[in-house]
Amino acid sequence: MKASALHLPSWIILVLSTGNAQAFNMACSAICIIDNLNPAKDGMFMLQYVPRSHRSILFGNLSVAEVDAKFMDAIADRLSELHIADSPMVQKLTVSKRCNLSHLIVTKSRLSSIVIEENESLNLLRISSSLLNQIPPGLRHLKALSYLGIFSCPIVTLDLAPFCTTRSLKSLRLRKNKIRYILNSSPTPCSPVMEDIDLSDNQWLQVTSYICMVVAFRMKCKNMCVIENLRPQKDGSLMFRYLSTSESYGVKFLNLRSTVVTEVFLDEIGQYVDDVEIEKSPVVQQLIISTQCNLLHLHISDSRLRFIQIEGNVRLTSLKISSTLLEEVPATLRYLHAATVIDISECPIVTLDLAPFCSTLSLHWLKLTKNKIRYIVNSSTVPCSPLMKQIELDENHIQVLNLELFSTSSRLLRAGFKKNAIKLVMYHGV
């Protein structure tokens, strides 16, 4: 048999059975495929029939609970790439120190455990549609690993620590899992050559600030990334440069730990994203928007914000402030030359001066609902907001309404005053 095996053509097809076991099939063309193999019963003798020119082998419906080191090493002695597919019996896999495989791919199995010894050969590892519920800690032993892909697995918490000694890792793809939380239990900087992390198609993503500081990557998040507990003055803004700029991503900051949201902070992040939300950040009290800020949309809610300073800005189109301690409409809103929407809601504003909106020449929609507005004045001497189409002042405390204050907005289509305490409506003194 051995003598003839050396002369078998590359299209060899074998159908073999051992005893009463289900026959396994082997077919080799561009790649060798072996179906229904039970290594414990069938052995590994069929490997001698794999043409020497072949690098890859695929096992379909591999009938073994543990793909052990002996099995892996036997494959690696003849081939460099191993694929295991559609194998519901497979639950555990071991990569040994002497395993010389360069590529290992496992798809559609019940794999839940991977044991990895220190290994300097494996370059690519891809696991998909398995029962793996955590990043295998042993990944740190894969010294040559440059690509890791884990897809469609029930991983909820991602600990980046295993990647801190994978010095060759350039691409980390963790798509379509159930990742909700990211942490890093390693005290040392991680993956110095990392170029790409893909976390798209996971569940709502939360990222703690220090993770981004110790992992150099261009981070891809679906729709919006969430950064929690960031301290800008201490943690810096290094993580921003790794946000993907291939699409328009937004960033949500939760519990931003800075009294002043400075122009430097917003200018930096505005280089990489268009949308920023700052939520549930009780430390925040001041906001400064500079001329250089390239953000399109800015939303701040649930903070102790009291003061807003705006320099001349021709980029920001939407500003939303809600549930803050803002007591008056900031006079510097007049410098938002590109703003089409301004929404200030659920703030303790009592007196509304319309003057700041008279220089916002692009403003279409002004929303000032659920504040405590009782008085409306206009200290401006020029006509206001020529493009204004809609003003909403619902759910305030207005008692006297002077419609003449709004008559200078020539294109106004709707003014809403629902759920106020209006007792008197005036127009031209009547």
TrEMBL record:
<keyword id="KW-0406">Ion transport</keyword>
<keyword id="KW-0732">Signal</keyword>
<dbReference type="InterPro" id="IPR051432">
    <property type="entry name" value="KCNMA1_auxiliary"/>
</dbReference>
<keyword id="KW-0407">Ion channel</keyword>
<keyword id="KW-0813">Transport</keyword>
<feature type="signal peptide">
    <location>
        <begin position="1"/>
        <end position="23"/>
    </location>
</feature>
<dbReference type="InterPro" id="IPR032675">
    <property type="entry name" value="LRR_dom_sf"/>
</dbReference>
<dbReference type="GO" id="GO:0034220">
    <property type="term" value="P:monoatomic ion transmembrane transport"/>
</dbReference>
<keyword id="KW-0812">Transmembrane</keyword>
<protein>
    <submittedName>
        <fullName>AGAP011649-PA-like protein</fullName>
    </submittedName>
</protein>
<keyword id="KW-0472">Membrane</keyword>
<keyword id="KW-1003">Cell membrane</keyword>
<keyword id="KW-1133">Transmembrane helix</keyword>
<keyword id="KW-1015">Disulfide bond</keyword>
<dbReference type="GO" id="GO:0005886">
    <property type="term" value="C:plasma membrane"/>
</dbReference>
